[in-house]
Glycosyltransferase (Seminavis robusta), 455 residues
Amino acid sequence: MKNSKSRLLRRGNKKTDNGITSSCTGTGSSCDCNSIGMGTLPLIVCILLGIHLFSEKRSMAGWMKGLQIANMQNMSTFVSSSWGAVTTTSKTQDELAKSDKNFYSPPLQKLSLLQLSRESAQNHQQHHNCTWPFVLIDDRILLQQDQDNANKEETDQFDAWSYQHNKRKIPRILHLTWIHDDPHHGPNKGRCLHHLQAVSIQRWKKLFPNYSIFYHDDYSVAKMMQQEFWPEFPELAKVLQCVKMRNAMLIDIWRQLVLYRFGGLYVDLDEIPTEQFTEDLIPQHVDFFSFSDDNTRPSQWCFATSPGHPATYHSMLTIFQRLLEMPDISRPKLVLMTGPEALKNGYSHTFPSKDRYNEGMHYGIFNATGIKYTRKKAAVCLVNNRNDPFPYNATHNWTVAKQYEADLGAVHWTKAGSHLVDQGRGSCQQHLYEFERRSSRFPGREWIQQSQGRR
Ligand SMILES: *[C@@H]1O[C@H](CO)[C@@H](O)[C@H](O)[C@H]1NC(C)=O
Ligand SMILES: *[C@@H]1O[C@H](CO)[C@@H](O)[C@H](O)[C@H]1NC(C)=O
Ligand SMILES: *[C@@H]1O[C@H](CO)[C@@H](O)[C@H](O)[C@H]1NC(C)=O
Ligand SMILES: *[C@@H]1O[C@H](CO)[C@@H](O)[C@H](O)[C@H]1NC(C)=O
Ligand SMILES: *[C@@H]1O[C@H](CO)[C@@H](O)[C@H](O)[C@H]1NC(C)=O
Ligand SMILES: *[C@@H]1O[C@H](CO)[C@@H](O)[C@H](O)[C@H]1NC(C)=O
């Protein structure tokens, strides 16, 4: 039940206009670094995005070019060293090892996390401003600058820090998101978050000082899912046609993809870490990390993997299969299709041993090494504040959930649903067929024309 608590759907919006605010009130790039006490680590450069970035006099075109080249050529070699390959064939591991080496090369990594972050910040500045009770969310990007990296591209410095020079399997990156996906959302789009949600990000910044923190807004989620080329998941663009629940369900899929592509830790935004959640919970030698949910499944609201991990790969295959088999696109079974059950399936493919759902270390295919903590541990490490009352105004104390609803126009996904019918009914396969039928390249057109002519 835990994960379902944190899924919200949004519609409509009411907002109050008490002026512009920001999560980072200092000026220049030092405010967050100082507040987390990193001033004493000279090797680290902290870059703040959001409003501050584009005031820098920097040749964007030249910078982007450098980033892309570094990313295409060097990130891919880096990623390939962390995972040999993941494959759909039923060959055994030994057979695979003997087959064509090229088959093992993962595709070139085209999208850079740094680029995505910068585009999102730029996009925000151009189009949106946050008005209270919404606040601006900055990313925190940590780079390693030492003798080895002094002249390297930022991407390499970022990798060096995230992976601690290859000592770590899961990079020190935290991914957070909240999709607005609402045309009525007014100015509070993009990197604007409710101030009660922003509390969570401030906690992460404090408790995970060595992690880069990326907030993925609507823009960067859409960019990664729709505009990025996924050679390993050719079905993606098509199957997304059957995903009508553009918030919770989309984010289920997105969290698998973002970890598959970049690696790191994903946590639902309304989970707030306690002092018990330290960086040490995700040790450097593991490539998979999770707690347990109430059904001993890996916690889909909080899990971490290295890039290209078999568990996220298999979770994606499970998602494709279950979406394609969906009998009614207006009534998706989230938990089964894209949610915790999909991750469970990906996890159990990766860690075949019988005790894989127990607490402790687990060893799986491709030498996967995972750690799984208990449900009890999750409850100690993360609190969900959605049902706690907070002052709303002088006369009302409202739960966070209620304040979200009032301020964002948000409704929990279990209460939403009926509006999905507007988007069409029928099975995913019917829906795809209809969709393709409108495309001029679809050979089925001729079949349809012929069969209509025969009538
Ligand atoms: C990045 O890739 C280029 C081209 O393959 C290579 O010349 C360069 O040495 C690489 N840099 C690093 C840091 O690996
Ligand atoms: C956002 O705020 C800036 C600075 O106050 C202003 O120049 C800009 O026009 C605003 N943008 C929008 C879309 O309101
Ligand atoms: C962050 O990294 C520094 C340097 O590697 C280390 O001394 C410190 O213990 C780390 N902090 C945490 C919370 O792990
Ligand atoms: C697993 O690890 C062993 C020992 O480190 C290594 O010999 C083997 O090649 C690895 N297998 C795969 C599939 O990576
Ligand atoms: C507080 O909010 C509620 C609900 O919007 C409203 O009815 C009430 O008048 C507000 N109180 C004040 C003092 O603004
Ligand atoms: C809201 O909660 C606070 C703290 O529990 C309490 O002091 C205050 O009286 C409450 N206000 C209202 C309007 O209920």
